[in-house]
Amino acid sequence: MLQDNSSANAQDPNEDLDDDIDTDEGEDEEQAVPGPVSSRHGPSLTDTLFADLAIPDPILRGLNDLGFSYCTPIQERTLPVTLRGGDIAGQAQTGTGKTAAFLITIFKELLETERDHPTAPRAVVVAPTRELALQIAKDAEGIGKHCHFRTVAVFGGMDWEKQARVLEGKVDLVVGTPGRMMDYMRKHLLDLRHIQVAVIDEADRMFDMGFVDDIRFILTNCPRDRQTLMFSATLSYDVMQLANRYLHDAVEVKVDPDRVAADTVEQILYHVPEKEKLPLLLGVLEELAPHRCLIFCNTKRAGEWLDFKLYHNGWESQYMSGDVAQKRRMKLVEDFRGGKIEVLVATDVAARGLHVDDVDLVVNYDIPQDAEDYVHRIGRTGRAGQKGRAITLADEALVDRLPAVEKYLGGKIPARVPTADQYLQDLSPSFAATKKLQERSGVRKPPNRSRRR
What is the CATH code for 3-254? Predict the structure, then answer.
């Protein structure tokens, strides 16, 4: 029952997939872990130092290299339990540091115990989306830099045989999505009988995506005496039922359960006619000049149109949705992370799975139908103790969704009246006519654009 209360030689999880991913030769990949946070003065940090906890020196060195000194609230609450080997059912919003919490726990366990099998993985992390699985693997490289462990990531949407090869040889930590992991387990390419620590991340999302039976299968094939950590944005009845069945004397930890949106995100609402949304967006972008901006639309058509408009008004923009091939999506995320893309326009497929740090601005070009999607969207900014800004454009067609969002938030989104100089003229050509020309020429984004910023 629940109680109330990668080293320098670590393998890149995509090492065997390089010929499937279009990347520029010689490009320096930006570290995927959160940006440096060296003091406790960030709004989401506590007074507890990592150095004050029972964390082995190689892990502390990795944290120090990343500029991490002080714990976030979820880390402060969970690490004293998990570092002693206890199970956790943790509730925390996105961007609160739960990934680091379970990676620190995993690496401590692996450092302080011996292998009982020469090649089988010793820890497993199950994530609902490909992007999240890859992000966790990248975070593991940073935090475990001095631990001499091999982390591999397996997920759908990539060549089955090539991903199977990353499981060959000694593996310490495997991170993956449920479907692909089960494929390899059934083919006896992935052996979870020697797992010491199992992590289920974003458990509520697993239920939303219909993965609960897969999670049961994976946990059932792990040893009974493993340590199990489960994290979720909400500890719903279904999540708690799963926790009660597969966790042992787990401690339930809720960090700010009543605070739906992180207090590091400044939320701004503009009531604007639909025909004036684009001019206002152009003006806001020009005014704020974000280094990385993520814009959410509700439909594929709207996203393609907005990407076109932004690009032809001088912004380095790209568009991503569920219809974009996985290799292309991974390339877009890396380019966004590396600064090649200033503005990424996306549908809600990216709201949960996209983990890119230092996003300055999130824009809800459309109000989402689901209030929870609003929270997931704006959670892409204001991460790891840093401040972020989220702007919502409420037009006459979608404003009726606003009350449900504000009810879910537990308060009104602060509204502002746009000034005349915040509107910029759209200098782009006709979307329909240009798309026809592009289809005939095969050139998606010609270099001759209307505005050079």
Answer: 3.40.50.300
